[in-house]
Amino acid sequence: MIEQRTGILTIEEFISLYDEEGPFEIIDGERITLSPPKAGHVSITKRILFAVERFAIEHDLGEAFSEGPFVETDGPTWVTGSRVPDVMYYTKERLTLYKAEVPDWQDKPFMIVPDLVVEVISSNDKYTEVAAKVDKYLEDGVLTVWIVDQKRHTITVRTPIDYVTLHMNEVLVGGNVLPGFSVKVAEIFR
């Protein structure tokens, strides 16, 4: 007998739909198709990914990934939600533990909430939708969210208890999630 649940997918169904229909997120039971990113968006995402990944590798802190999904689960086989941040970062300790607990992790989307996510606001994004998405990340357990605004050339750093908006002449730091990391905001938008 196959167990069925309303509003959620098995891991296999999630992977199959993702392969067939392209990237999507599942937020509050609703499947949201993602638009392909534009060149400016991709360029900024690459700069952030490169800066975070280079620093994390040099200091043996963790790993960063781009445009990949992570899923929320109800048990080992049921997907209850999914997100596709522009960049996501996991600390070494959490990622090592996850890989040990999920031996076939390479054949699935990440089934662990990231420590840090980056959302690059695109020209077609609505402010209210981005704000709601950031709130969901924090509710999911993400520790820090960087919201990169291409038009205003700002980066807003959100945590569950605080936020700050950085401008071109300021420096983005990694805080507790990526200790010692720093990059000039202007470098991200060059």
Quick overview of this protein structure:
This protein has one domain: tt1808, chain A (Alpha-Beta Complex). 31% of the residues lie in helices and 30% in strands. It is built from five helices and 13 strands.
What is the number of helices?
A: 5
**What do the pLDDT scores average to?**
89
* Category from helices, strands and their pairing: alpha+beta
Low-confidence stretches: 1-6
CATH architecture: Alpha-Beta Complex
- H/E series: EHEEHEEEEHEHEEEEEH
Rounded to an integer in angstroms, the radius of gyration calculated over CA atoms is 17 Å
Characterize the largest beta sheet: strand count, sense, and whether it forms a barrel: 6 strands, mixed
Task: State the CATH superfamily name.
Answer: tt1808, chain A
CATH topology: tt1808, chain A
Distance between the termini: 57 Å
Order of adjacent strands in the largest pleated sheet = 4-7-8-9-10-11
Please report the first level of CATH classification, the CATH class: Alpha Beta
Shape descriptor reads: globular
